[in-house]
Amino acid sequence: MLKVNFWLKRLIKEWLFLSSTVGVILTSIYLHRFPSYSFDDFKILIILLLFLVVLRGLERSNFLTYISSKLIRGKFIHIKIVLLTAIASIFFTNDIALLMFVPITLTLNIKHKDLLIIFQAIAANAGSAILPAGNPQNMFIYWFYKPSLIDFLKTILPFTLTSLFILILISLFVGNQKANEQKDITPKGNYKIYLALLMLMLGVVLRLIPIWFGVSVAAYALIFDRKSLKIDYFLIGIFFMFFGLTDNLRHLINISSQLKESVVIFSAFLSQLISNVPTALFLSDFTNDWQRLLWGVSIGGYGNLIGSLANLIAYRIYITHYPEDKRFLIKFLFVGYFFFFGLLFIYLAK
């Protein structure tokens, strides 16, 4: 009975995986066909899995916490944390950046801690948009449409710079505060190996190194550090199910003619309903306009908690420490939709 309750709670918690699985089953029954998966689909899943293993290894080695605790010193703590979260998200993904910096923010003796964590969520989504490896939707768009790295950067850099510029201006009004001293943290010896593996995986994502080099990541974790294999497998499952669901939906509906110039608007608002990662997977079958899709799902990462899984991470960590703060969600939505509609207006006005 206890095991049944455990799995029921876990499935409710992983509602996105559950709903996508149900979607695949229902559409497959209706169409009398199984989804079709391409070789590129499986390559993306393998790369994502290996990337998560490396990031888990770095997290377990205390390297990320070590770096962040050393960097957060002196005044202007709000701006520092916002920028550090954004920079970390570029190289370690938005999820890892928040897992790294939000717990540190909670230990600081400063005012407006709730707003700072909301700003961190915005910064993580903005910073992670720059590189293909910054977040799952970027990784998918880069591998699915195969643009050059230069074109990718030219397309999305204005989004990141505009978001961070606005965020820094707002942070200036929050206050000029100094953080309390942090305890010294020493990273474990294997962090150097994981840093090397991280560089290797970045090379794989950027298509500079053949994908089979990633076997070294799995081999090291299996032989020397099996605890690093405890990653978010539900995220892999969500990708797998959405690859299948989008293939089935492609045989059910055709929205290509309705998209055209409205790719940004459609993808941004759809992200508010099903999150930006599934939106990128779904709409990729209906449009070749990867630039507008990239902007749309990036904007869609703002707004509500569903827009980006990173938002849920920041929210969960804060509420776990301050469950009595009922206004946090209202503040999160207010700031989130300020950036959502602000960036959408800026894009449409250009």
From TrEMBL:
Pfam families: CitMHS. Keywords: Cell membrane, Membrane, Transmembrane, Transmembrane helix, Transport. It is a multi-pass membrane protein. The chain crosses the membrane at residues 12-30, 42-58, 79-103, 115-134, 155-174, 194-221, 233-253, 265-286, 293-317, 329-349. GO terms for biological process: transmembrane transport. One of its GO terms (cellular component) is plasma membrane. It is found in: Cell membrane. Residues 18-283 form the Citrate transporter-like domain. This is Citrate transporter. It comes from Hippea maritima (strain ATCC 700847 / DSM 10411 / MH2).
